[in-house]
């Protein structure tokens, strides 16, 4: 065996950092010193191994023609037994690796089963913006049904245990609730403000071009659409990485529109699409935004 066989690989070091930080936290706490930053580091490093595993699995996904980096954060991934029903024809249950992103659910077939490096072949997908869910299926504690609204096709997912099923239904439920809340804020801002108890909602950016306005009394033309948009967009002054499902990541220098604010120091923002990512909506701390 060569020396390299005895060395810890980079991917193996990641789990070591968490253990070292936990020891550091333990002794720092015993010394009566401030542990807040170390606790944050431990929490962060607890997520890193999962994120690394997620990225490795996504790298093995074949046949998806879209851009995975444009689908938001990967929230869950799991292997289910999936049966498809279309026009009352129920297919035989098949093993599928299912990836849940903020904006899409992807169903894939497992390749090279039993291998240390399995691959995945894209089979189907549902956009979260059209997603519907049934979490109670004929008294089966491990089943849930997903479908795209307006489509007759149904996907029945059977998990290996009820805890996995519950985790997925909670995550999807949170996504759908956030989506409904956002639509409510846009469609009925006054009613939404009343329900949320003190949230102030601003006018959303117009998705279409308004009719041309006449000149003002002093003879000058009114502001153009771009000038109006610039006035309503707020500059992000510090990076923020989303942790919860209803949050979005924003980075210094980006421009977002504030749609709502709550009493917990957060703002519901709309981030316009750019060359790197699609448009997105979610909560960010107000401290990350530039204050006028």
Automatic annotation (TrEMBL):
Q: Domain of life of the organism in this record?
A: Eukaryota
Record domain DH: where: 1-55
The cross-references to SUPFAM superfamilies, in alphabetical order and at most eight, read: DBL homology domain (DH-domain), PH domain-like, SH3-domain
Residues annotated as domain SH3: 229-292
Say yes or no: keyword Transmembrane present.
Answer: no
**Which residue numbers delimit the PH domain?**
67-177
Gene Ontology molecular functions: guanyl-nucleotide exchange factor activity
Region: Disordered, residue numbers: 199-227, 262-292
- Which keywords label this protein? Guanine-nucleotide releasing factor, SH3 domain
Provide GO CC annotations from the record. Answer: cytoplasm; extrinsic component of membrane; postsynaptic density
Q: Name one GO biological process term.
A: intracellular signal transduction
Recorded hits in InterPro entries, A to Z, give: DBL_dom_sf, DH_dom, Kalirin_TRIO_SH3_2, PH-like_dom_sf, PH_domain, RhoGEF_Guanine_NuclExch_SF, SH3-like_dom_sf, SH3_domain
UniProt-listed PANTHER family: KALIRIN, RHO GUANINE EXCHANGE FACTOR-RELATED
Name the UniProt record assigns to this protein: Kalirin-like
Q: Which gene encodes it?
A: LOC104946487
């Amino acid at each position: 065996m060569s020396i390299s066989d005895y060395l810890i690989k980079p991917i193996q070091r990641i789990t070591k950092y968490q253990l070292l930080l936990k020891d550091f936290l333990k002794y720092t706490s015993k010394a009566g010193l401030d542990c807040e930053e170390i606790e944050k580091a431990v929490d962060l490093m607890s997520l890193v191994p999962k994120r690394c595993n997620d990225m490795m699995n996504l790298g093995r996904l074949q046949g998806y023609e879209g851009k995975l980096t444009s689908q938001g954060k990967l929230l869950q991934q799991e292997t289910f037994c999936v049966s498809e029903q279309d026009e009352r024809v129920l297919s035989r249950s098949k093993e599928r690796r299912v990836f849940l992103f903020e904006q899409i659910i992807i169903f894939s077939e497992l390749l090279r089963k039993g291998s240390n490096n399995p691959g995945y072949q894209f089979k189907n997908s549902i956009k979260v913006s059209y997603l519907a869910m049934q979490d109670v299926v004929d008294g089966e504690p491990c089943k849930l049904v997903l479908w795209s609204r307006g489509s007759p096709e149904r996907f029945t997912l059977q998990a290996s245990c009820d805890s996995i099923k519950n985790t997925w239904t909670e995550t999807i439920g949170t996504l759908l609730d956030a989506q409904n809340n956002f639509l409510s804020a846009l469609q009925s801002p006054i009613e939404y403000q009343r329900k949320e108890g003190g949230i102030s909602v601003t006018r959303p950016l117009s998705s279409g071009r308004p009719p041309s306005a006449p000149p003002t009394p002093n003879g000058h033309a009114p502001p153009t659409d771009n000038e109006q948009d610039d006035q309503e967009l707020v500059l992000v002054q510090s990076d923020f990485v989303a942790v919860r499902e209803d949050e979005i990541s924003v980075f210094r220098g980006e421009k977002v529109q504030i749609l709502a604010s709550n009493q917990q120091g957060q703002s519901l923002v709309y981030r316009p699409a750019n060359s790197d990512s699609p448009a997105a909506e979610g909560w960010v701390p107000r401290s990350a935004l530039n204050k006028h």
